[in-house]
Design a protein that fits this description.
The chain is of the alpha/beta class. The chain has one domain: Class I glutamine amidotransferase (GATase) domain (Rossmann fold, 3-Layer(aba) Sandwich), CATH 3.40.50. It contains 7 helices and 13 strands. The chain has a 9-stranded mixed β-sheet with strand order 4-1-5-6-13-12-11-8-9, sandwiched between helices. α3 crosses α4.
Length: 257
C-alpha cells in the first residue's frame, strides 16, 4: 500500500509565557492537510540554522506556507522598515523565500496561504505594501474588531466571508473551482504591491487587492491565496476544492518520485 503523502507545514517563532522560545503553527492548517488533502502534516521550524531545506524537500511531498502575524521584512523588497509595521520574522523570511524557489525548481507542490502568498511573491522579485487599507480606494482587509478596538471574540465573525474575488476565466483557480467568482474571508494588513516576474495574478478582490496567484512555468502545483483557506475546507466548498487539488498534486508527485 502506498503511504500517505507527507506535507511540510512551516512553523512560526513564538514565545510561551514570555519565556520559552517555541515553533508553532495553527492546528487548522494541520487538519486541513490531514482531513482534506489526505496527507500527513509535518511541522518544520522556520529557522535556517535548524531546518536543512535540501533534506526537508527530500523528505516531504509538498509544502504549505501558512499565514502568520509577522510581516515579511521590507528589506526583502528594497523598502525601509517602519516600526509600526512590526513584528517581523527574518528567520521565517529566510526559510520561506528559499523554499518557494526550491519547490518550484524541483516541481514540489507548494501552497501559500496569506503570508505564504506574500512570501511567494517576494521570492520571485515582487514587493508588498505594509498596509493595504492605506492605499486610496482599498477596503480594510484586517480582521473585524469591536468598537473598543479589541479583536472580535467570535471566530465565526472573524473568519466570515467578507468580499468577492474575481478569477481569471480559464485560469488555474477557475479550473479547480469551476467558477469565475468566489467569496472569501479577509484577515491581513500587508498585501502584494508589485507582482514578481513569474507571479501570475489569477484572482483580484473588488477593491483591486491581489487575492490569488500562481507561479508561471512551474512544473508542479504552485498556488497562493491571500485569504485563510485553512479555516474551513472541511465544509467550505471553495477551500475544500483547493486543498483537494493540492492533495491530488501530492499524489501525482509521489508517482513520479
Amino acid at each position: 500500500m502506498r503511504r500517505k503523502p507527507v506535507v511540510g507545514v512551516i512553523g512560526n517563532a513564538s514565545r510561551v509565557e514570555n519565556r520559552f522560545q517555541v515553533q508553532m503553527c495553527g492546528e487548522r492548517n494541520l487538519r486541513a492537510v490531514a482531513d482534506v488533502a489526505g496527507a500527513l502534516p509535518l511541522m518544520f521550524a522556520s529557522c535556517p540554522e535548524i531546518t536543512d531545506i535540501a533534506t526537508l524537500l527530500d523528505t516531504v511531498d509538498g509544502i504549505v506556507l501558512t499565514g502568520a502575524r509577522a510581516n515579511v521584512h521590507p528589506k526583502r523588497f528594497n523598502t525601509e522598515p517602519d516600526e509600526k509595521h512590526e513584528p517581523y520574522d527574518i528567520s521565517r523570511d529566510e526559510v520561506a523565500l528559499t523554499l518557494s524557489k526550491a519547490c518550484v525548481e524541483r516541481g514540489i507542490p507548494l501552497f501559500g496561504i496569506c503570508r505564504g502568498l506574500q512570501e511567494m511573491n517576494v521570492a520571485f522579485g515582487g514587493s508588498l505594501h505594509p498596509e493595504i487599507r492605506e492605499i486610496p480606494g482599498r477596503m480594510n482587509h484586517r480582521m473585524p474588531r469591536l468598537e473598543n478596538g479589541e479583536i472580535h471574540p467570535d471566530p465565526m465573525v472573524i473568519f466570515a466571508d467578507r468580499h468577492d474575488v474575481s478569477l481569471v476565466p480559464g485560469g488555474a483557480f477557475a479550473t479547480i473551482l469551476g467558477c469565475d467568482r468566489i467569496r472569501v474571508n479577509s484577515l491581513h494588513g500587508q498585501g502584494i504591491l508589485e507582482p514578481g516576474k513569474r507571479v501570475v495574478i489569477e484572482g483580484v478582490a473588488e477593491d483591486g487587492t491581489i487575492e490569488a496567484i500562481r507561479i508561471a512555468d512551474a512544473s508542479g502545483f504552485a498556488l497562493g491565496v491571500q485569504w485563510h483557506a485553512e479555516y474551513d475546507p472541511q465544509r467550505n466548498p471553495i477551500n475544500r476544492a483547493l486543498f483537494q487539488a493540492f492533495g491530488a498534486a501530492l499524489t501525482a508527485r509521489q508517482r513520479v518520485s
